[in-house]
């Protein structure tokens, strides 16, 4: 895909892209404030938490905007998803940022006003709706019409969606547990955060594979390897966390997770090198002609 193609692609989702960029702007503002005045906002606020939330949601929305044109959803359904998700994201930005600045936990405010309790309750509902609507959005990539237009890339997106669902499950577990911590050393935030990066990594690897001169079966194999390895790596992380144990200990599950993500990296590097080699061959053919 050329630079012009990428720009045209994003132009189709200007609203989602702008909402994602807003999250990055808010994240930068929170980071600057934290560096200048300190991150803690008594009694419960933490500007670094607002920074990480806004940045993560912003990147997630930008990544979603990039793959939306490939969805198998009908135009009206996609438009409804777009407007609903933008509205949910804007509310999330507002509550996460404002409440932390005011010194309150946006999800579980202690000694907050009635307004704070209502805002927290709506925030929980919004979080659930973000999951529900994304599940509906993900289903579109399992339609034949979506796969037929761009097989390798849609296959990569399918695997990414499976990993995103694992991340959503981690987020729900944090809400149900009222804490990111499990047992002595388990921390759900790593599972919750890393899974969302599948939406950047796996479609990118699939896009690279699609641009190689490999046979169709070989390109699909690279996508399958990266997608399955990423998903199994998350599963190993999740199992270790549910046991209440840390991810940095030298035991079977963390080592399995590490091996899986190394395999994802290897598949990505193979796709990148093959893609570059294919580009060089095309240039040489053009010069020869």
Task: Give the tags.
single chain; 3% strand; globular; two-stranded antiparallel ribbon; 11 helices; mainly alpha; 289 residues; 2 domains
Structure, explained:
The protein is mainly α and 289 residues long. The protein has 2 domains: 1-143, no CATH class; 150-278, no CATH class. It has 11 helices and 4 strands, in the order ααββαααααββαααα. It is globular and about 60 Å long. It starts with a helix and ends with a helix. The mean pLDDT is 91.
Helices and strands in order, then pairings?
Elements: H1 3-11, H2 14-37, E1 40-41, E2 45-46, H3 47-67, H4 75-101, H5 114-139, H6 144-149, H7 151-177, E3 181-182, E4 186-187, H8 188-194, H9 198-210, H10 216-242, H11 252-288
Antiparallel strand pairs: 1-2, 3-4
Summarize the structure.
This protein is mainly alpha-helical. The chain contains 11 helices and 4 strands; from the N terminus they run H-H-E-E-H-H-H-H-H-E-E-H-H-H-H. A two-stranded antiparallel sheet has the order 1-2. It has a two-stranded antiparallel ribbon with strand order 3-4.
């Amino acid at each position: 895909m050329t630079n012009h193609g990428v720009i045209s692609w994003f132009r189709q989702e200007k609203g989602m892209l702008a909402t994602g960029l807003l999250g990055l702007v808010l994240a930068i503002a929170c980071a600057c404030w934290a560096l200048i005045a300190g991150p803690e906002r008594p009694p419960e606020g933490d500007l670094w938490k607002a920074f990480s939330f806004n940045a993560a949601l912003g990147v997630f929305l930008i990544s979603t905007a990039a793959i939306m044109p490939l969805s198998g959803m009908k135009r009206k359904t996609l438009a409804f998803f777009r407007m609903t998700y933008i509205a949910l994201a804007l509310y999330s930005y507002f509550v996460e940022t404002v409440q932390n600045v005011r010194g309150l936990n946006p999800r579980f405010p202690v000694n907050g006003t009635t307004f704070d309790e209502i805002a927290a309750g709506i925030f929980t509902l919004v979080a659930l709706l973000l999951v529900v609507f994304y599940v509906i959005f993900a289903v579109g990539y399992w339609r034949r019409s979506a796969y037929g237009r761009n097989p390798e890339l849609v296959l990569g997106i399918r695997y990414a969606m499976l990993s995103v669902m694992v991340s959503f499950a981690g987020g729900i577990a944090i809400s149900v547990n009222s804490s990111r911590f499990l047992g002595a050393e388990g921390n759900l935030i790593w599972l919750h955060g890393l899974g969302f990066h599948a939406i950047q990594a796996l479609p990118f690897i699939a896009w690279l594979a699609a641009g190689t001169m490999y046979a169709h079966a070989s390109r699909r194999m690279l996508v399958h390897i990266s997608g399955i390895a990423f998903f199994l790596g998350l599963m190993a992380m999740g199992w270790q966390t549910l046991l209440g144990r840390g991810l940095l200990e030298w035991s079977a599950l963390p080592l399995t997770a590490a091996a899986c993500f190394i395999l994802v990296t290897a598949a990505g590097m193979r796709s990148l090198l093959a893609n570059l080699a294919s580009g060089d061959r095309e240039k040489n053919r053009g010069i020869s002609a």
